[in-house]
Amino acid sequence: MISPVRWDGERLVLLDQTRLPADEVERRYATWSEVAEAIRSLVVRGAPVIGVAAAFGVALGARESRATTFDGLLADLETAIKGLASTRPTAVNLFWALERMRRSCLDHRTLPLDRLKARLLEEAEAVLQEDVAANRAIGSHGAALVPDGARILTHCNAGALATAGYGTAGGVIRAAHAQGKVHLVWVDETRPVLQGARLTAWECVKEGIPHRVISDGAAASVMARGEVDLVVTGADRIAANGDTANKIGTYALAVLAKYHGLPFYVAAPFSTIDPTLPSGDLIPIEERDASEVRNFGGRQVAPTASPVFNPAFDVTPAGLITAIITERGIFRPPYNFSR
Ligand code: MRU
Question: Residue 113, by phi and psi: left (phi above 0), alpha (psi -120 to 50) or beta?
Fold first, then answer.
């Protein structure tokens, strides 16, 4: 199984996603600040696996601590948590995982410090294992929505690389493919940093899933030609009303799907739902460096003097989403995630 993250007994090992598809390079991390930099620079990206990496980052922060009291250790952990939390603002899985690690530390405050540090590592391992299990459940729920001979359009990468393994939207595609239902996956290239062309297509090649890469602007045409049966994407944060933040361009696809009468599905684990936000307009949207838009393949494609706007995510209103596929089952509008 493709997995972008593992613990080698001493260090966190990440598959460097900035180097795919050309090179499969693993990098090893021994400190929380190195992990934070890996998240910021997209070595590891995708909402669920950002959470997994951050959980290991906290465990590394505990191991780095020279404190001799619980309060000292907790203070060091808070520094690590704050640093990791400052990397990327949109995917709520990051904050969910950091909070889970903080809670685990507080719950085990009576343990000797060495034992507590080992416990935090176990907690990070649990976050990783639970993510894979959630994705398999998402895949099996979602595959039931996929008709025989399906032509599926997806955006960005919500596959194994974006998770601890198997994928969310990618998991739905994987499970449906295993059932022999997938005729073709249309892979949006996903400008500016090409997670579709570089990462989703790489996964499809590895798994033998039939696919075609299209430029983002081609999605409307393939729908108009009657060559898409459904759209499925992942999510970075889902508000309590079902409004969903995902990679920039997702909203446009949802509008297109509505116009062409196609189902538009979102697949995500429960850790992506943010019950504290009533609606999507409250979701913080990350803006990334202008260089991602101004350059392409190492070459400048817009004048240096041209200002750039580079939001990494957009929010799809709940009203455009046919259903949200989670490990706890399929939710339909009006969305109520309290079951
Ligand atoms: O900027 P990225 O590559 O981290 O954005 C990733 C996405 O938008 C994914 O679709 C989302 O995180 C879901 S991953 C299962």
Answer: alpha
Q: What is the pTM of this model?
A: 0.97
Residue 336 falls within a domain, yes or no?
Answer: no
Catalytic residue among 236, 243, 274, 314: 236
316 lines ligand 1 (CB under 6 A): no
Regarding the beta carbon of 156 and ligand 1, being less than 6 Å apart is answered yes
The two beta strands, 12-15 and 264-267, are unpaired
56-97, pLDDT tens digit by residue?
999 999 999 999 999 999 999 999 999 999 999 999 999 999
Query: 296 and 167, same structural domain?
Result: yes
Given strand 244-247, what is the order of strands in its sheet? 273-274, 237-239, 244-247, 313-316
Mutate to test the pocket of ligand 1, among 41, 138, 156, 244 (most ligand atoms within 8 A of CB): 156
8 catalytically annotated = no
* Boundary (domain end) residue, out of 103, 136, 169: 136
